[in-house]
């Protein structure tokens, strides 16, 4: 839907607003990336810092955070990585994180909820495909604690971080004089969209679906209240990280057929840091996107069911 009474081309005539350096400008931003010491969180934090943002990376263990801050700090551009030890899976940990950051900053421009966990699960493919064998495997070898722990970390904690940082996000516009308040980006997964259990990871897939739903609800409620705090969710497919067990020959571009047959990815490779960073910037910088779920999976969802995972 467009407004024919106003020319989009005229509104940008004579400006440099469409230069790439302006389209995705995060220089001077204050960012918080939970789980920012490893995996996709570190990719996110490094990309932001490389483009001039001050990035607080948080996690339960200080060692990987300090290592990341030392080894991945940008050599130029003015950005930085600042480690903060705080457990985002508890309300007390989130409160500690907020208190540390609000003691140093007057606002934040983006909160990226990246922390998460993938716990062990029963495997329905490992037993005889009878009602009795499936019942035994999936009932006796699963626990309520596993389900609830995963939901607490992957979904419920995102709710608490969103509301804990709401005043600092709002202050980006009211105090920092930015064009918009800060925004939130949550880490979902194609596992929260697929209709398969991916060899029995019912809990993980269910709580990632809940994370996507939570993101939509937050975006809706913030919009209804004219807070203008955008909330989006990114849904990656297979990327190298500590949460999945991709074989070494799958990680690069050397064996496309293997990736297609074993992992069911039409593009024949895992996602990489550049792929992921491009999606991150498109969601956090675009001031007209909220309530969106962006899938980045090399086409896996389009052909799901053909792979062995």
What count of structural domains?
1
Straight-line distance between termini = 40 Å
Helix- and strand-based class? alpha/beta
Strand order, largest beta sheet:
3-2-1-4-5-6-7
Per CATH, the architecture is 3-Layer(aba) Sandwich
Q: In the CATH scheme, what's the topology name?
A: Rossmann fold
Quick one: CATH superfamily? NAD(P)-binding Rossmann-like Domain
Keywords: NADP, Oxidoreductase
Protein name: Short-chain dehydrogenase
InterPro entries: NAD(P)-bd_dom_sf, SDR_fam, Sec_Metab_Biosynth_SDR
GO molecular function, one term: oxidoreductase activity
What does this structure look like?
The protein is an alpha/beta fold and 309 residues long. It has one domain (23-251, 269-298): Rossmann fold (3-Layer(aba) Sandwich). 41% of the residues lie in helices and 12% in strands. It is built from 11 helices and 7 strands. The protein has helices at 8-11, 20-23, 39-50, 62-71, 91-102, 131-140, 144-164, 166-174, 202-224, 256-263, 273-285; strands spanning 30-34, 54-59, 80-85, 110-113, 183-187, 231-236, 293-296. A 7-stranded parallel beta sheet has the order 3-2-1-4-5-6-7, with helices on both faces. Helix 3 crosses helix 11 and helix 7 (144-164) packs parallel to helix 9. It is globular.
Short descriptors:
309 residues; alpha/beta; Rossmann fold; seven-stranded parallel sheet; 11 helices; 7 strands; 41% helix; 12% strand; globular; oxidoreductase; SDR_fam; oxidoreductase activity; NAD(P)-bd_dom_sf; NADP
